[in-house]
Amino acid sequence: MALLFSILFFLISSVTACDRCVHQTKTAYFSKASALSSGACGYGSLALGFSGEHVAAGVPTLFKDGAGCGACFQIRCKDTALCSKEGTRVILTDLNQHNQTDFVLSSRAFTAMAQKGLDQDILKRGIVDVNTRGFLVNTRKKNLSVRVEESSQKPNYLSIKLLYQGGQTEVVGIDVAEVGSSNWSFMSRNHGAVWDTSRVPAGALQFRFIVTSGYDGKWIWAKSVLPAGWKVGVIYDSGVQINDIAQEGCSPCDTGSWK
């Protein structure tokens, strides 16, 4: 675990520290949001409740082997005659293997970039040039939650899915222990937002999460999450919210509101 934590730290660039770096890229769309919700992050139908079906798939550099799942982006197309200044806000739910764009959005998210009455015009484009930036969002103001996956088999195997993690941080490590114990076991990322372990402590369970924050990382401790009688298919509230911001290096830093 010490090695895992150490990789979070890196030298601060001489470029301005920023949580609103703007990137220029392209985006396309899928006609069905279900194609994105059932993707590599493993959210399934839960994803459609995150942001009004404003979901997206990102290329590997954004997906980050699953660490990017749940990340939030504001995206607006650069054609001001077609699109609004605000653009659309999306949550990353899938891996994009499209070789022409960094993002593929749900059609609802894609048309949300357009000015009023121009929905069909932007759909006809298929691919548009866009500016993107990350942003912090607390989905419906919910705490970070843990869903026990159906593959879990008490007491030998535990698989969990993270929900509502905040949008501008990445969970890069998880430890689990019995409530009141300091005997922690590490969990491994199975895929996307799903983590698992075959070293399942007995009794009620606490978790500690390593999340990106600033230019490095920090521990978030959820002291009582799963009851001793945890059940598969149930979502448990961790009692914590992750409101930290992972910064990038860029200049200038766009701190303004896109409206």
From TrEMBL:
Alphabetical list of SMART domains matching this protein: DPBB_1
Keywords: Secreted, Signal
An individual GO BP term: anatomical structure morphogenesis
UniProt keyword annotation of Ligase present: no
Span of domain Expansin-like EG45: 38-133
Compartment(s) where it occurs, according to its Swiss-Prot or TrEMBL record: Secreted
PROSITE patterns: EXPANSIN_CBD, EXPANSIN_EG45
Cross-referenced InterPro entries: Expan_Lol_pI, Expansin/allergen_DPBB_dom, Expansin_CBD, Expansin_CBD_sf, LolPI, RlpA-like_DPBB, RlpA-like_sf
UniProt domain Expansin-like CBD: residue ranges: 156-238
Protein name, per record: Expansin-like 1
